[in-house]
Amino acid sequence: RKVVKNAVRGEDFKAAATSSSRSLLVWTPGKEREAFFAKLSLDATIGEVVRTIPKGEVARSVGINNLLAAEGAALPKSFKTIPEVLGIMPKDMERGGMIVRSIPQEIQEGHTRVVPLFSLYADAKLGEPPLLVDMIRRSGMKGEKFIRTKILRPFIKQWLDLAINRGIVMEAHAQNVLLELGADAQPTGSFFHRDFGGFNVNFGYRKKRRLPSADLPIITSREKDYHTHSHVAALKESLYTFFIGGFVNNIDVNFPKWVEAGWIKTSRNPARFEDILQDEFESAYRRMTGLTADIRGDFRNAASAVLKARKNILQPRG
Fold first, then answer.
1. Is residue 125 helix, strand or coil?
2. pLDDT, tens digit, for every residue of 282-306?
3. pTM of the model as a whole
4. Using one digit for the tens of pLDDT, what is the confidence trace for 45-85?
5. Residue 84: in which H helix or E strand, if any?
6. Dihedral pair phi/psi, residue 192, rounded to 5°
7. Do strands 45-46 and 23-28 pair parallel, antiparallel, or not at all (unpaired)?
8. Strand duo 79-81 + 187-193: pairing
């Protein structure tokens, strides 16, 4: 209130809530094609998390956006983004920022549909199957094969490419990762990513490989704003905590129920999808690096595999 006490009131906007309690779809009446997303600071604690945006996240979100833009065509073709083009932070405040996201043209014009991963298994209307079951049934594929080939395989290839070749790790939970759907409402093999405040980058590795640099806004310091000392921890959390703990675990919990309900067909003794993801990880890792990755049932070991691959790139064996 103190910050805006003497401010001149600006233009009014319309807004609609999204899946996040503080991210809104915003537009000016009559100018819907100029709509954008605004991630706002909400003065509340939800799920034991303070929902105001800290100043470091404001800087980091725009900086990571700039870095990804500098990468351009070098990024995996399956990797797409909801750009974070503007960050605002009240002067001399620790928390209370805002981040503006633009809407990609193909989404704005309706050529592409995207759904957050949690929408795939969320409960539909009473007695009706969730979205993922509907996709599987219309594809004509068995459920296990569909999830493996249409979601897990393309995602893990993308994750490894970014982590090993670009030094970039994403916060891959089921709200920030969005599945792209084609005109047939089936997965295209591409994913849109949002909330760059959760990304982490190994700038030292990128410098050694002479990868593109970018303008990185800094409010406190690069180390604090971009969490440069937490890269290994981010590698461990990205798959283990966020992707498996969120998306894959929910599929493992719900898939047997969908089969029991007669909604989908699968093999006689289907494997857990966490185990399937491990197979896909080790296979993609071997093809990409020529090395062997042994996850041993714990995806926190993926961090060691990524670091080993990076070391081999900088200092090839033989």
1. coil
2. 999 999 999 999 888 899 999 999 9
3. 0.93
4. 888 888 899 999 999 999 999 999 999 999 999 999 999 99
5. strand 84-88
6. -95, 145
7. unpaired
8. parallel
